């Protein structure tokens, strides 16, 4: 695994943005995937620690989820690289780093003020990039004007 040098708050903002996208689409087993990820980010947040299908089955049964819904959700998480199968055993998995980060964000945005904090951070970051680009563009134009003035004298 290649180490990630992306600042942690940017990774959390990226996860929040993906969560918002998935919530808007709301396709298939996404609500079940959220339950699994919240468990991973709040209670089972050890990268090297594995879990069995039965462990997650016990956890989600209280949410009214049956086996037929759980298997596709775990499959989707594997495709999204939020969960990975370990060794050759099919029913044993572990969360990836990205899966735990997404689970932590999902767990924290259950509180309305945390959700608002992520939204404000995301909007601030989205506004900061164009402002920086415009500032750099204006500075470049200013330098070009100064250079043209010097050349024309």
Features:
2 domains; Arc Repressor Mutant, subunit A; 153 residues
Task: Give a verbal description of the structure.
By secondary structure, the chain is mostly helical. It folds into 2 domains: 1-110, Arc Repressor Mutant, subunit A (Orthogonal Bundle); 112-153. Helix content is 69%, strand content 6%. It has a 3-stranded antiparallel sheet. A hairpin with a 6-residue loop joins strand 2 and strand 3. It is elongated. The mean pLDDT is 78.
Enumerate how many helices there are, as a single number: 6
* CATH architecture label of the largest domain: Orthogonal Bundle
Integer count of domains? 2
CATH class of the largest domain: Mainly Alpha
Q: Fraction of residues in helices?
A: 55-70%
- In whole angstroms, how far apart are the ends? 59 Å
Q: Mean pLDDT across all residues, rounded? A: 78
- What integer value in Å does the Rg equal? 22 Å
Given the C-alpha coordinates, what overall shape results? elongated
Low-pLDDT parts are none
Going across the biggest sheet, name each strand in turn.
1-3-2
Per CATH, the superfamily of the largest domain is: Winged helix-like DNA-binding domain superfamily/Winged helix DNA-binding domain
Query: What is the N-to-C order of secondary-structure elements (H for helix, E for strand)?
Result: HHEHHEEHH
């Amino acid at each position: 695994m290649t180490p990630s040098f992306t600042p942690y708050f940017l990774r959390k903002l990226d996860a929040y943005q993906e969560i918002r996208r998935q919530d808007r689409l709301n396709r298939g087993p996404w609500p079940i995937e959220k339950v699994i990820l919240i468990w991973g980010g709040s209670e089972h947040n050890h990268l090297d620690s594995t879990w069995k299908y039965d462990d997650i089955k016990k956890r989600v049964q209280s949410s009214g989820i049956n086996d037929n819904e759980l298997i596709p959700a775990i499959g989707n998480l594997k495709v999204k690289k939020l969960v990975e199968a370990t060794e050759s055993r099919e029913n044993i998995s572990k969360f990836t780093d990205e899966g735990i980060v997404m689970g932590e964000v999902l767990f924290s945005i259950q509180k309305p003020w945390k959700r608002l904090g992520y939204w404000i951070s995301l909007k601030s970051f989205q506004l900061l990039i164009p402002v920086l680009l415009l500032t750099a563009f204006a500075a470049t134009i200013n330098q070009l004007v100064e250079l043209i003035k010097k050349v024309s004298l």
